[in-house]
Amino acid sequence: MSRPTDVVQGTLDLLILKMLALRPMNGWDISQRLKQHSNDVLRVSDGSLYPALHKLEQEGWIEAEWRLSDNNRRAKFYTLTRPGRRQLDQERESWTRLSNAISMVVRLKEA
Amino acid sequence: MRIERWLYTLPLRLRSLFQRGKVEQELRDELRDHLERQIAANESAGMSPADARTVALRDFGGIERRKDEVRETRGVNLVEQLMRDMAYAARGLRRAPGFTLAVVGTLALGVGANAAMFGIVDRLLFRPPAFLREPGHVHRLYEAFTADRTGATRVNLSYARYRDLAQRSPGSLTVAAFSVMHIAVGDGDAARELPVMAASASYFDLYDAAPALGRYFTSAEDSVPAGAPVAVLGYGYWQSQYGGRRDVIGQRVRVNQTLCTIIGVAPDHFAGVEAGEAPVLYWPLTTRAADARPGAFAANYGWRWPEVLVMRHAGISEATATTELTAALRVSWLTQASANPRNSLAIGAAKPHALLGPVHLQAGPLAGPETRVVTWVTGVAAIVLLIACANVANLLLVRAVSRRREIAMRLALGASRGRLIRQLLTESLLLAALGGIAGVVLAQWGGGAIRALFIRGDFNSPTVADGRTLVVASVATLVAAVLTGLAPAMQALKPDLAHSLRTGARQAGAERSRLRPALLLFQTTLSVVLLIGAGLFVRSLLNVRGMPLGYDIDPLMVITDNTRGVKTSGAELASLEARLAQVATTTPGVVAATPAASVPFWGFDDSPVFVPGIDSLSELGTFGRQAGNADYFRTLGTRIVRGRGFDAHDDAHAPRVAVVSQGMARALWPGQDALGKCIRLDADTMPCTSVVGVAQDVRVRSLKNQREYLYYVPIAQYGDATGMLFVRSSGDASSSVETVRRALQGVMPGNSYVTARPFSAIVDPVMASWRLGATMFVTFGMLALTLAAVGLYSVIAYGVAQRRQEFGVRIALGAGIADVLQLVVGEGVKLGLAGVTLGIVIAIAGGRWIAPLLFDEAPRDMLVFSAVAAALMVAAFCASLFPALRATRVDPVQSLRAD
């Protein structure tokens, strides 16, 4: 039985920032969206999502606000801040560089 | 971090610190919301409600763990944890008040002892004097030279020497001179001898201390041939004698003979460079010189009194300054030699050179034995702290062991080890902090008493008022915290969880750590060493005290009369002194009185003596002359062992007579009767003075020199006034000093006055270092012994509590009381023996270091060793006896059923 692929270490921040760049969301939304958009490949363990969210909040990259959600319950919504947007750009850039590099190595022809 | 981000993060940090409840509530809500949605999603996917919940929880991975991870992300977590740990530790300590009290008390003693001793050492050796402009650039100047092929170092130079140095040294050096003496201030009956500082005008340039009022004196006012009659008051004296009034400027005050105009007031806490009493008044060096010796003092190289300070300005190194000053010093020696060729050492052989030392006299080359004792005692205080730490570490260990089950439980529940250790360390930190505070209070309270022993007349600063002592106390506290917390923390790292949970506290008995006996042995050994030190010093003090000085001390007082300015001839003065003796005798409580030419330890004049038939008298020893009236020997309590003392017939016209000391008689006429022998005083052409009596030996200059001889002549034949009297009271002299002073003051004409002081005030300082050593070593030694005994007791008592079951079994199997006693007491005694052995080995090895501080006492005194060994064994025996008795009372049935 194959376990859901764990998010590559250190990219969870990037994923969360990217999700929130689309629109403000609460934790539940983020976890569902991640599954959806990655065709269920990226399954962030629900438990590890919240520490990551709080870390980003403490860093000042996202901010939180209590609002009514679609099911009419109070939920904590996270929004990207301006420093967060800059951070997203930075992380996206370094991710692109990293994945390009890895692809290039992986595609090397074997002798 | 960019400022913009602070906008977002700062409110968060503050919230998590101060609105913790709310933040936690939100976290709970957020996570619950997520879980509920997941459960709902699972249910709609077809799971049963129970399964939906279980799966959701499992996927989430432990709510509490996640919460903790979230908490970790808050930057303030550490602070928060610390606060929580503190609260937790405080709660734990409140639950064990006996334990807490023992630990805090022990640490307080250790920290207090160190804070108090540091306060003293700091004052004596390290702390720069208040207001000193550049403490690192100010030095005390010593004059070093060679005389009789041995090196000599002087700190008191002559005014002439100081003037040469000041004039010939480069402008990059400020040379200043000062001298503090007890000099009469005030007129007539109000006159008191008080500490007065004579200072060069340049002296005040060393300080950054604006006068509280008026000004200091200028170099024009401090000049040869006689300085200006001006004075600057000390702040304390201004407050106490003048009520701090601002109109003191321009008022007159008599200092010795000179009527001085007050021109200023020094600022509060200004006291010059020495620890000790602050001067009440400052006056120019030259004014004081002219007052004491009018005339050509500026060319007198033999009258050495002021001490010299040197301040280096920017850009001149200590080495260069020393070279420059040595050059100036050599020129000064040449000047001296050309002015006084007969009485000067040859510069070629003497090789005079300047020596720059620390500002503090006690830190320099001429430090007295007290300084060494102080250093030793400071080391001893550190040892006491170590012992205290060992003790506390032991108590904490015992406590940690009894908390094994609790610790194991918390580890099992998922607390990280780091977190647990942090908590244990927090506990010892809290304990140490409490101990430190109590220690500072203790030092404040007891330190003053200790300091009074070391620094005479130092009233002007409380022990721990300054930051430096507080810093030392805090460092000591921190060291204590780490030392004491480490052991239990290390032990907490070890426990085998399941094992500890199952066996509980009882288990500790079987695998008792080796750490505790080691700590116990450590403290026992150190206390043995300290007690041996104490014993050696006490014996030294007893030796000093018990040494026959040849006169009494306690019933005697010393009167000095000072005529200041009242012109009298020597003969008039001598008859005034005779009258003073007479008046003293009629004062209530006085038994006898006599004028005296010298006072022991104040210096004796070495007038030459010539004895027919002996060429080189000086090779036999030093001969001091004393003069007294018919009551002299009765007043001093010096026994006449042969012949007679003086009587009323020995007046100026009677045949010249003398009494010699036993040692002198033996040295001059070995094997012969001294009575009737002839000695010639002052010159070998003088007529014979015949020896009419032999008195017991006396010590007058040093306690150790056996070749110190004294001879006595009747005051009427001495031919001069002496300026001093001895008065013997019926009780302790210190209680009648003021009565006698008042009675005698009534006889004094004009501005003249008398001072009276108990003789013990003169003799005591001579014995100070041994008394200090004895007092401090005994105090700290007893402290150490008490700590060691308490430590032994607590550990053995604890061991007994741990082994209740074992004792129960033993008793059930038929062990008698004696067997159990032997088992427990044997353990304590064994430890005691090991400590005694180790301690004695260390004491023997270290003995030679302390030998120079002892008096007539071998550092390997068997009596001391055996007394200490006995004391320690008794302490060890008692400390283990009580727990042992408890062990015998163990009820086998009950103890087997428990746990």
Folded structure, characterized:
The complex is a heterodimer of chains A (111) and B (899). Chain A is built from four helices and three strands. Chain A is of the alpha+beta class. In chain A, a hairpin with a 5-residue loop joins strand 2 and strand 3. Chain A starts with 11 loop residues before the first helix and ends in a 5-residue tail after the last helix. The N terminus of chain A is likely disordered. In chain B, strand 4 and strand 5 form a beta hairpin. Chain B is globular, with a radius of gyration of 38 Å. Chain B has four domains: 74 residues, no CATH class; 224 residues, no CATH class; 304 residues, no CATH class; 208 residues, no CATH class. Chain B is of the alpha+beta class and 899 residues long. Chain B has 27 helices and 23 strands. Chains A and B meet through helix 2, helix 3 and strand 3 of A and helix 1, helix 2 and helix 4 of B.
Brief account:
Chain A is an alpha+beta fold. In chain A, 55% of the residues lie in helices and 14% in strands.
Distance between the termini of chain B: 58 Å
- Enumerate the strands of the largest sheet of chain A in spatial order, edge to edge or round the barrel: 1-3-2
Could you say which overall geometry of chain B the principal axes of the C-alpha atoms support? Answer: globular
The gyration radius over C-alpha positions of chain B equals 38 Å
Class of secondary structure makeup of chain B: alpha+beta
Low-pLDDT sequence parts of chain A? 1-5
Considering residues with a beta carbon less than 8 A from a beta carbon on another chain, report the largest interface and each chain's count: A-B, 26 and 30 residues
Radius of gyration of chain A: 16 Å
Percentage of residues in strands of chain B: 15-25%
The proportion of strand residues of chain A reads 5-15%
